[in-house]
Amino acid sequence: MLIQMRNLAFVRQGRTILENIDLTIKRGEIVTLIGPNGAGKSTLLKIALGLLAPSSGSRQAIANIRIGYMPQKLSLPETLPLTVKDFLKLAKSYEKSQLQHVVHRLKIDHLLKTPMQRLSGGELQRTLLARALLCKPELLVLDEPVQGLDVSGQSELYHLIHNLREELDCGVLMVSHDLHLVMANTDKVICLNGHVCCEGHPQTIQQDPSYLELFGRAMPAHLAPYTHHHDHTHDAHCSHGLNGNTEEKH
Ligand SMILES: Nc1ncnc2c1ncn2[C@@H]1O[C@H](COP(=O)(O)OP(=O)(O)OP(=O)(O)O)[C@@H](O)[C@H]1O
Fold first, then answer.
1. Rounded CA gap, 34 and 247, in Å?
2. pTM over 0.90
């Protein structure tokens, strides 16, 4: 076990954002959080990172756990002179040999002198991932790592994450909206909507009634859209009540 949350809740300004969360991540395991906007996915990642404290329940991690974090986005002033190399060197602590290894592994050697603002979407995601790897993480936390990439770029990055997990023998906790790609690239999926609606292996979870209510009927993996059905309401125990027949696509 790398990290474990038990009966965790997070409340802000009188509003319950997360409740009844039980989550364990082991070494070598990829766990993916899916859920509609505002479901609490980023909040849960911040609790995993230790940036936010739970309001109740517990979050335990192994002693001195090394966590590499890839944020959802990076906002840099257009005129800030910052090359990829400078950016990587801002990481808290790393060895020079590790920087060289990571840069080579993620195939960004040729970008080291490029200003951060000039990177393409795919190059930026690889650079952010490289920075997350500098601490030789035992746990990688990735907030929508493939956003902004085209389908082949998404597939390539998931494949890379898949391989890195084996090479580093680390755990991976990530958020994704790309349901069809998640299914092929994860060990465990957790459907979150303030609480855990359902969880399990990607193949089995597609049969779960809670999953089907949230994301619609199972389809061939390459055709599955990310569809969130809002024709029901949730309570803390994941029972559903019908309230109309509207549907949202995210
Ligand atoms: N510190 C805070 N204080 C008050 N409300 C907050 C705080 N942090 C998050 N929230 C609220 O909690 C809810 C969950 O936010 P969160 O960003 O975790 O959702 P998400 O699932 O990551 O959404 P998205 O898919 O849109 O990124 C949102 O309604 C947000 O406004």
1. 17
2. no
